[in-house]
Amino acid sequence: MTTNGKIPFLDLIAPHAELKEELCEIFAAALKTGGFVGGPMVEGFERDFAQFCGAQHCVGVSSGTDALRFALMAAGLKQGSVAVTVPNTFIATAEAITQAGGIPDFVDIDERTYNMDVTKLQEYLESQCSVSEEGKLISKRSNRPVTAIVPVHLYGQMADMDAILELAEQYRLIVVEDACQAHGAEYFSRKQNRWLQAGSMGRAGAFSFYPGKNLGACGEGGAITTNDSKLADTCKMIRDHGQAKKYYHDIEGYNGRLDAIQTGILSVKLKHLPRWNAQRRERAAEYNRLFAASEAGVQPPYEPSWSRAVYHLYVVRTGDREGMMAHLGKAGIGTGIHYPIPLHRQRAYESLGYKVGDFPVTEKIASQIVSLPMFPQLTAEQQERVAAEISRFEQERVIQAARV
Questions:
Q1: Which of 263, 287, 294, 400 has the smallest C-beta neighbourhood within 10 Å, fewest atoms?
Q2: 266: closest CA among 192, 210, 336, 191?
Q3: 77-96 mean pLDDT
Q4: End position of a domain, from candidates 210, 235, 270
């Protein structure tokens, strides 16, 4: 949806206008039954989303952060132990680790996919860890046991899960997927010789249903997927004050339930998600074609042969981000940055002791990446205008540089 010729970075109006009647029916049904927390709506969505992800179980929770936090707790992240993840992600990834009682250790990212660099992960496990007399892997940085790996399927693209899982098995580590941006993304497992869905490969997967996600609620929401029935049962208790049944609290838990109305809305949208994801892939292919045919001067996303990305974001790299964003803004084109400050440089994590230069790939791309408009209803004409404006900006930049 455009306003006065502007192209928004994200359009949350068009899909809801398209589904307005179905969505209003969900609210009306909740009013009639009084079922606002738990019940058939929640259970129906959990069943359908588990099937969509190729997992045996799904547990709806109140946010993607809670999904990752609860999954880590249920999977066995020990108090004071280390979970390895990447610094190029939203802070919720690290928050979930620390709020589950763990400590994040970071490894750098692959410069093409922007996801966890498996070579760097292997180097971390081999050279930045030692093995205790009890056979436990110990982080030299914190002198704490390493328990888990949290790969992030960033921007809707899968991390290299076969290699990550192989290292996890070798070092007896838990793998919990941060799939909060990867609803429906697929990975071709060379080991299993088949395509697998995000959230179905690790011990558990965590999803966010924040409104701007590929599958977004009309508010907050999240889900845990897993093939482990015991882990699913534990997550159900954690989300509901530790209750095995009403007023019988086996553990201390949280209030992290997913509302029935939100699950009803998500159930309606889930039926359209494959089509929306296909449209996102088409829009990404069109951007790729436009940039290849022009002198836009930007580096488009890289999609490995083993990945079917769902393009939650379409992220390019440029030599003059601020200039390009300013130019596009004047032309009425929305943009974003995901993410401008890596986690190891955030004030919130100063106590971890990382410094500038520790993760050179992350630091380099953090100063170059720009997220362009990407949503299923984006038109080819709008994309042509985005590409034309970027090309115009680059040409002007070349001319100005020649004058200096």
A1: 400
A2: 210
A3: 97
A4: 270
